[in-house]
Amino acid sequence: MTEPPRFFCADAARRRGDPLAGTAPFGLVWVLVEYPGGWPPDGFDGLDLEPGVKALVFAAAQAVKARILLIRRHGRRTLGGPRRWAVLRYGGSGPHRQQWGTWTRDEELAGIVAALAAPGEPGLPPVVLVCAHGLHDTCCAVRGRPAARALSQLRPALVWESTHVGGDRFAANAVVLPDGVYYGGLDATTSVAAVEEHLSGRIHADHLRGYTDLVPAQQVAVAAALQHFGPAGRHAWTVTHTTRLADHWHVRLAGRPPHPAAVEVEVRSRRTPPHQLTCRGPARSSTVVHEATSLRRG
User: Fold this and answer.
1) Which of 157, 192, 197, 289 has its CA 20 to 30 A from that of 177?
2) How far apart, in whole angstroms, are the C-alpha atoms of residue 58 and residue 53?
3) Mind listing the pLDDT tens digit of every residue in the chain (298 residues)?
4) Which of 241, 239, 236 is nearest to 226 (CA)?
5) Can you give the residue range of the structural domain that contains 138?
6) What does each C-alpha distance from 78 to 25, 73, 96, 148, 174 come to in angstroms?
7) Is there a domain that residue 95 lies in?
């Protein structure tokens, strides 16, 4: 008896044409913990760390709604020597902030707690994460690792593989922090193009999932402006007003020169039919999709 073909959630999402825009999870603070060994399916939660320290870090991160991600350099599995940790903080239109430290013993991870309570340092180079969490979802490894390899060859000091960042079906996923910008549907070539353009101050609508300081409808509105008026920097468009009536959203954007001073975007939300959304989870779920229906100058 012939076995059915193996299911890959990213392939299925592409066949369905699942929209990328509006799918970045909300977040303003991230905790990164370098762990070059094998990653458990549930990431930091599954690590065999000293329980008291682990609980302390988790509670401090939860208090400020920070996301904890494990990171490692692509292709490097050396377990000896000091490892790094970081607290990254999105700063709105002002300077983004970071604080880095090292750890060799579990107890040294307690430094993360103090860093979460401190303002952090502005002006440090950005961090590029590529989800390559194969035990969480197969597509994250199959599609994420080639993208991580290509980016690491070009920007070895900036790029890390990471545990689950959300949206398995959009693999390969890359996140630029502390900018809080998600990209998806990448491969080795498009990941380099998207990240290099981002680092040059030109965010493109292609492959953009969204900005993590915005709700989905606002993310879609910004993506529509980038699509219509061309690539722009992270803070070239600002959401100034949002209203909602049932499944209709009205989002007003303020643009920095040379873009229009005001743009009005209409966004409609809809629920999709149930589908299998991850490689590991056979259950079928529906999602809410947001799509721009009109854009005009204000």
Assistant:
1) 289
2) 8
3) 566 788 989 999 999 999 999 999 999 999 999 998 889 999 999 999 999 999 999 999 999 999 999 999 998 666 678 999 999 999 887 789 999 999 999 999 999 999 999 989 999 999 999 999 988 889 999 999 999 999 999 999 999 999 999 999 999 999 999 999 999 999 999 999 999 999 999 999 999 999 999 999 999 999 999 999 999 999 999 999 999 999 999 999 999 999 999 999 999 999 999 999 988 878 898 999 999 999 999 7
4) 236
5) 29-183
6) 31, 10, 31, 18, 24
7) yes
Instruction: Find the length of the chain.
Output: 298
Do the domain assignments include residue 165?
yes
Specify if 40 maps to a domain: yes
Domain count, the chain: 1
Q: What pTM value is reported for the model?
A: 0.95
Question: Residue 154: which H helix or E strand, with range?
Answer: helix 138-154
What's the farthest any 2 CA atoms get from each other in the chain? 64
